[in-house]
Design goal:
By secondary structure, the protein is of the alpha/beta class. It contains 28 helices and 22 strands. It is globular.
């Protein structure tokens, strides 16, 4: 596959230490995870600016590192009063929609004052009228944005700044790179220039086949890289980016198509329907009619299960669409055919809930071999990590002997100690992420590959499904089962309506007195000693009294989302009254102190509870013994209590759109009207309120998924972490690049038709090998 004498990616695999030296290479590695020439050249400029084009100050985020292009208005240097040395203050402008008088006089929001301490060079090189690139952390001083000791580089042609040699052509656009405080945009540009001059392009395999590049009119690979970093004009930059987006789409689609074809070559045990079997008897005792969509998808699954090749299907449907019934019918078909079915759930609470609901739905059909059980039925077994040893041994024996036709569990099912008698079907809940080794362990549970059904309650736009789940057939369960009542959703803004806090508790009491049940959801658990001694309305006042502090924290959390630093920041913030997230502990104390909720049976449910306590609490709530459940997102997926009709999500702005939609789906599951309140302490106009306004505006999951993907990109909706993190995709965007994805899908199939092992497309094969790092493998394997 690889031509003799060619390294993996040729000179693109050269370490940056060979080009830039050890010190600068270490900065590249530590700051931006750039280790090789290829890493550096694949670090795409965020945008281009023309000389004279200024950055808008309105786009700057507090406490975040920013690179901007601005014009110098004035420069003044003075001695400092309380310490030795001098301070140089540089006033810059973006000239945004303000009069020339404001620019000159120093008034208006289009100006920033930058502070340089003992910076004699800055005082000399920066003067009125100069355009420069400034990089630094944006902060507030006396209520105004500023930067302290930012890195700068004048952009005017007459300024001979060595670090900007890469921009020597005054007619060329200036690339602005994603950067950090230690690795600024202009330094990256200089490093790119140095690396580019060291590449012998004849050593670099092109992953894009010539026929594909010619068909779309893309430049060759060296030209594409040159135009990516030093474009003669903006159009050349966009054409270069299009080439690399298409290359990424082709790599991803080829990997998915190849994987799908490999799976189709495997052999599975056919599981055809059995007349008058358990499935038919289950259908006869159903207390409701299956919807047309449930019947249609059921027929697809029946056909897939009857084949000699393993089913690999994604079942997507909105919250409450009835996916569990469809999956149960598929599992019963497997049992009828003499095989076992395993249902993997993400948490023990949900596993126990699935186990209980399946047993209740099947009745005597799930109790074969027991007193009162149907001898023609089967057994449904629960297996979790926290089960008592005696119960675990009994479950393992029933699984190994084949007595248990349906096995429900968590990751404990993937343990090597679990031996299935004959595993025929695996149903995976959407939230259960497992990697290649775990998935292969399930496949290796028997001599034949089991059929696979992946369920997701997060509606996925078609192009996203094609991009992420391209190796799976997709079924969409549209509509809701009969009898479901719509959910009314309202945004409760405590910032503008602090008195509504009391009404929230009163409204919950009214629902409980009507015989219904209530969820209070908080974004975190909290500690006893970290609970602010105040009401929620009072905490709003604290927030409002310190807008600068609040803005800095919000920006810092956004810029560090998903990192340990961000988690530490959240915990630190929680120690200060009113500044942290609302916790379950805080809610418990507020509920206890509320006259409106006096005497109401209340319990807490969250991840720190021991498994038996969580199970007992959930069973008590399901049985109606608990009126108010104070919880975290542990109830987000799968919990089914039809009598729960009222949900209050506190600090709803801390959640993503999909997560709020999932949470809301825990109510509205019965015949009674349901209401969801999204409570926020943010002021009107805050960006996070756009998310909760979107959720309140519609219950259409597909519409919300589209909005979610638009607002948060693929990193949140497709990645392992639903609340943040980068996208596995580099340049490709599933919503924006529909035509590229569809074209690449067709091209991948055509290439594999004539060259299934990619021997004649070794450049593409090598690129796929490099592209499929550990993160991307999980991305492809997450089904």
């Amino acid at each position: 596959m690889r031509e003799p004498g060619h390294p993996h990616r040729g000179d693109l695999d050269r370490p940056l230490t060979q080009i830039l030296g050890a010190t600068q290479a270490k900065t590249m590695a530590d700051s931006m995870n750039l280790h090789t020439v290829g890493d550096l050249l694949d670090h795409v400029p965020r945008r281009l600016v023309q000389r004279g084009e200024l950055s808008s100050f309105d786009d700057l985020e507090l406490e975040a590192h920013a690179t901007l292009v601005a014009e110098v208005v004035s420069v003044t240097t003075r001695r400092m009063r309380n310490r030795k040395g001098s301070i140089t203050e540089v006033v810059i402008t973006d000239r945004s929609q303000h009069s020339e008088h404001q620019v000159i006089s120093g008034t208006g929001d289009d100006q920033m004052t930058l502070s340089f301490f003992n910076a004699y060079t800055a005082a000399r090189e920066l003067s009125s009228g100069v355009h420069a690139l400034f990089s630094g952390k944006v902060s507030l001083y006396k209520g105004k944005r500023t930067m302290t000791n930012p890195h700068y580089a004048p952009l005017d042609a007459e300024d001979d700044i060595g670090s900007l040699d890469v921009m020597a052509d005054a007619s060329s656009p200036i690339p602005v790179y994603p950067a950090t405080a230690k690795l600024t945009s202009d330094r990256i540009a200089a490093a790119v220039k140095a690396a580019f001059s060291e590449v012998t392009w004849s050593t670099v395999p092109d992953p894009l086949p010539p026929g594909v590049a010619d068909r779309h009119g893309y430049p060759d690979l060296p030209t594409a890289y040159r135009h990516l970093h030093r474009p003669p004009d903006e159009r050349s930059w966009y054409r270069a980016k299009a080439r690399f987006r298409h290359t990424e789409a082709l790599m991803l689609q080829t990997a998915l198509v190849r994987r799908r074809r490999a799976v189709n070559l495997r052999t599975a045990r056919p599981l055809p329907p059995t007349p008058q079997g358990i499935l038919d008897r289950f259908d006869q005792q159903l207390p409701f009619e299956l919807t047309p969509a449930q019947r249609s998808v059921g027929e697809q699954l029946t056909e897939d299960l009857s084949r000699e090749h393993p089913m690999n299907r994604l079942l997507q449907g909105d919250v409450g669409a009835g996916k569990t019934v469809v999956a149960l019918r598929a599992m019963l078909q497997a049992v009828d055919a003499g095989a076992q079915a395993a249902l993997l759930a993400p948490t023990e609470v949900l596993a126990a809930q699935h186990h209980a609901s399946i047993q209740a739905a099947l009745g005597p059909l799930a109790q074969a071999g027991t007193l009162g059980g149907d001898p023609e039925g089967t057994r449904v077994v629960l297996l979790t990590g926290s089960m008592p040893q005696s119960a675990r041994k009994r479950a393992l024996l029933e699984i190994a002997s084949g007595q248990a036709g349906i096995v429900v569990g968590t990751h404990a099912l993937l343990s090597e100690t679990v031996q299935f008698f004959e595993l025929g079907l695996v149903v995976v809940d959407e939230q259960h992420r497992f990697g290649v080794e775990q998935r292969d362990r399930l496949r290796d549970a028997g001599e034949l590959s089991p059929h696979l059904l992946v369920m997701t309650a997060t509606p996925i736009p078609r192009t996203v499904a094609m991009t992420v789940f391209g190796d799976l057939d997709v079924s969409v369960l549209e509509g809701l089962p009969g009898g479901r009542r719509p959910i009314t959703t309202h945004v409760v803004g405590l910032f503008e309506h602090p008195r509504w806090e009391a009404r929230i508790f009163q409204r919950a009491r009214e629902e409980i007195e009507a015989g219904r049940q209530v969820y209070f959801v908080a974004p975190k658990i909290g500690e006893d000693d970290a609970v602010p001694q105040m009401t929620l309305a009072e905490s709003v006042k604290v927030l409002a009294a310190a807008p600068e502090l609040r803005a800095r924290r919000d920006s810092a959390k956004r810029s560090a989302a998903g990192t340990a630093k961000s988690r530490a920041g959240s915990e630190a913030a929680a120690q200060e009254p009113g500044e942290g997230m609302i916790s379950t502990r805080w809610l418990e104390e507020l509920v206890e102190a509320s006259p409106a909720l006096a005497g109401v049976s209340t319990a807490a449910l969250h991840g720190r509870l021991e498994a038996p306590e969580k199970t007992a609490t959930m069973e008590g709530f399901a049985a109606g013994e608990i009126g108010l459940l104070v919880c975290t997102t542990v109830v987000e997926v799968g919990v089914d209590v039809p009598n729960a009709t009222f949900m209050v999500v506190f600090d709803a702005d801390r959640f993503g759109i999909s997560q709020l939609h999932q949470l809301r789906g825990r109510i509205g599951r019965g015949e009674h009207a349901s209401t969801c309140l999204l409570v926020t302490r943010r002021e009107p106009g805050h960006p996070s309120r756009d998310r909760i306004d979107a959720v309140a505006a519609t219950t259409d999951g597909f519409e919300l998924a589209q909005a979610d993907l638009t607002l948060r990109r693929e990193g949140d909706i497709l990645g392992d972490a639903q609340s943040g993190g980068r996208s596995t995709l580099r340049l490709l965007r599933a919503l924006d690049d529909v035509k590229i994805i569809e074209s690449a899908r067709q091209e991948a199939m055509e290439i594999l038709d004539v060259d299934p092992t990619l021997e004649r497309h070794w450049g593409l094969a090598l690129a796929i090998e490099a592209y499929l790092d550990e993160d991307t493998e999980k991305y492809l394997e997450r089904g």
